Structure formats: C-alpha cells, structure tokens
Amino acid sequence: MKTYLVTGGAGFIGSNYIHYMFKKYGNNIKIINVDALTYAGNPENLKEVENKDNYEFIRADICDKEAISKIFENNDIDRVVHFAAESHVDRSIRNPEVFVQTNVLGTAVMLNCAKSAWELEDGSFKPDKKFLHVSTDEVYGSLEEDGEYFYETTPYAPHSPYSASKAGSDMLVKAYMDTYHFPANITNCSNNYGPYQFPEKLIPLIINNALQGKNLPVYGDGKNVRDWLYVEDHAKAIDMVQEKGKLFETYNVGGHNEKQNIEIINIIIETLQEMLPENDPRKKLVSKDLITYVEDRKGHDRRYAIAPDKIKAEIGWEPEIMFKEGIRLTIQWFFENEDWMKNVTSGEYQKYYTDMYSGK
Ligand code: NAD
Ligand code: DAU
C-alpha cells in the first residue's frame, strides 16, 4: 500500500485530488494531508473522507522544518504531491512576501525533508519514491498572438509576484533533480475550475455574485484569455504523471480551452439562466446588466495557452470534461452546496476548523 503525503490538500485542487484518489484507489492507498489551513484551506472540503482509516490530517506549515521532517520520520512516504502554496495573483500584488515564504521557502523545506528521508548512503535514492511539484502555466509569462502556445521548453518569464514565486519553486525542484538526481516531476497546469474553488477566483466569484444580483467585476477590457480545465482532469493528470511519466520530466497540463474573461462571464450568466427553475427568485437577479468593467489588474498577463502535446503523446492523458459540461457540473455543485459558500463568505468555515483543531 502506497503512502501519499499531500501538501495543501484542504485547498481547492488538493481536496479535489484527494477525492479523486480515494475514488480511484479506495483503501489501497493511505493519504496524509498536511495543510496550514490559511484562509484558503477549508476542512469542510474533506468532510466525506475525514473519518477514513487510511486518511490523516496534520495541521502544519510547510515552512516548519521540524514538523515536516517529523512526518517523514514517522511514516514511510512513497509519494509526495506538493500543492501547498499561496495561489491568488491579486493577493500577491498586495502582499508579495508571504508568497516567497510559502512558495519558495516552503518548497525548499519539502524538498530537503524528502531528500533526507529518501537518500541512501551512496547518494542514490530508495526505490520507487517520487515527488510531484504542482505548478502553473503562469511561470511562462504572457502570450500575445493567437496560435502561440506554452511548451515545456518555453523560457520562464513570470510577471506577478505569485508567478515569480512559483517559478522560483520550480527552479528549486529542477536544481534538486539536476544536482542530486532527486526523483521528481513538475506539472505546469492552466486555470482550473470546479467544486470547492474559493470565491476570490473568477468563476466561483461570478457564480456567487450573479446569484445574489451583485456586480460582476471585469478587469480591464475583459479580453484577457485563460485556458480553463475542469479540476478533476487536473487530478487525473497528476496521478498519471506520477505513475506513468518519466522521472525528472516536466509536463504541461491543459485542454485547449482558451476563452476571454468576458466570454466566461457571459457563459456563466446564460448557463445560470438555463439551469435555474422558473420559480426560483434568483432567476430574476441573474443578468448581463450586472457586468461592470473595473480597473485592470496591475501587470495583467494577456493570454495563457498550454500545448498539452507531450502529456498526450507520452502518457495518454486527455481531458474528459469539456467546458460546457464542466461549467454545468460546477454550477450544479454550487446549487447543491449553498451552505459551503455561505460558510466561506461569512468566515464561518474558519471557526469550524479553529474549534476542531484546537481540540474544542
Ligand atoms: P488554494 O489556495 O485553493 O489552496 C492552497 C492550500 O495550501 C490551502 O489549503 C492552504 O491552507 C494551503 N497552504 C497555504 N500555505 C501553506 C503553508 N505555508 N503550509 C501548508 N499549507 C499551506 O490553491 P489551489 O488553487 O488549490 O492551488 C494548488 C496548487 O496548484 C498551487 O501550488 C497552485 O500554484 C497550483 N495551480 C493552481 C491552479 C489554479 O487554477 N487554481 C492552476 C495551476 C496550478
Ligand atoms: O493559470 C493558472 C493560474 O490560474 C493559477 O496558477 C493561479 O493559482 C490561479 O489563481 C489562476 O490565476 P488567474 O489570475 O488566471 O485566475 P483568476 O481567477 O484570479 O483570474 C482569471 C482571469 O479573470 C484573469 O485574467 C483576471 C480576471 N478577473 C479575475 C477576477 C477575480 C476579472 O476580470 N475579475 C475578477 O474579479
């Protein structure tokens, strides 16, 4: 039975990954989820699995060397899947330092603890130990022209403090692979959407605001392009890279689903109008009149577009959920989990975990 150490598993992608892995492997794996529970971490995302015998939650900061090395000492970890990060670009523009702290120093701690636990006396590593670093397409910078794509060979050119800190963390992983032959992979994925996404990010923010008849803020001219992938397809890609990919390689993950932000907002409004029943009072609130152009994000990258050729050719990964279906699944999830959204927007979710993990 393999033991996974997942960092940041209480966040959006990490929690979807944990659900995906238990759905796929059942009781044949053990998952230890280490998460500091920042504002972005929400144990409610994992309510369905928290009592499983093969799941353990440890509240710890990845920058805390002692806490992380203790986890490696107490467990024979086979796989590390490293999601934990500060992830929101707007926050990085307001407060860059914590991004450097968590994303760069935290990754250094994870690498060093895994290396110490897995390294043999001759400098080689115990067999079948693997570290997967979850990164982003934003490290490649910004594309201008249609028809240009980010490949694994595209030079790094990050612009925001967030993407610069992720680029720094990727470089550390590359340095460990080059210097120590440390058994790792990096994935660089495009924008994710789906259940449990924190409503500071475009898609859940627009769904939540539209249902309440609140303004829908569009940065700049609304024509910036992002390449959207349903989160479960990302979870599947991570698992496939770790099990079928070549060690030491980077894989780009994306589904060729480029859309301008304004298109995304229009699709969400149209889909909400289709999906809401006639007698639902929110139906009258949802309207394109709510669209409000606001000041642009500083240093706003124009276009991201992933070329997923390598992961398709080498590993056979392809996205299964196309955007039309994915956005309906996401909206349906938000309809069925109104309390989740209420707890998040009211801050109640933070009380839940503070009580829970302070032993109350
Ligand atoms: P998120 O913000 O939803 O979750 C981050 C999680 O990390 C939270 O649970 C938080 O509590 C935890 N965390 C933060 N700082 C920590 C620390 N110091 N120690 C321990 N835990 C800490 O992020 P997400 O959107 O799920 O992104 C997960 C990873 O995937 C990140 O590395 C991000 O860069 C990458 N990524 C995200 C996207 C996207 O579209 N969201 C796309 C590509 C890659
Ligand atoms: O590309 C992958 C990245 O995608 C991840 O690495 C990041 O962790 C993740 O946050 C995401 O970054 P973006 O900045 O692309 O996502 P965000 O949802 O913040 O914004 C998407 C686009 O929508 C972007 O062009 C800015 C715009 N936007 C965003 C918000 C929150 C708006 O126009 N209005 C808004 O209110």
Automatic annotation (TrEMBL):
InterPro entries, per the entry: dTDP_Gluc_deHydtase, NAD(P)-bd_dom, NAD(P)-bd_dom_sf
Keyword Lyase attached: yes
Reaction equation(s) it catalyzes: dTDP-alpha-D-glucose = dTDP-4-dehydro-6-deoxy-alpha-D-glucose + H2O
A single MF term (Gene Ontology): dTDP-glucose 4,6-dehydratase activity
Pfam families in the record: GDP_Man_Dehyd (PF16363)
EC number(s) from the headed UniProt entry: 4.2.1.46
Annotated ranges, domain NAD(P)-binding: 5-329
Keywords of this entry: Lyase, NAD
Superkingdom of the organism of origin: Bacteria
Enzyme class, UniProt record, top EC level: lyase
Cofactor(s) of this protein: NAD(+)
Family: Belongs to the NAD(P)-dependent epimerase/dehydratase family. dTDP-glucose dehydratase subfamily.
Protein's name according to its UniProt entry: dTDP-glucose 4,6-dehydratase
Record organism: Kineothrix sedimenti
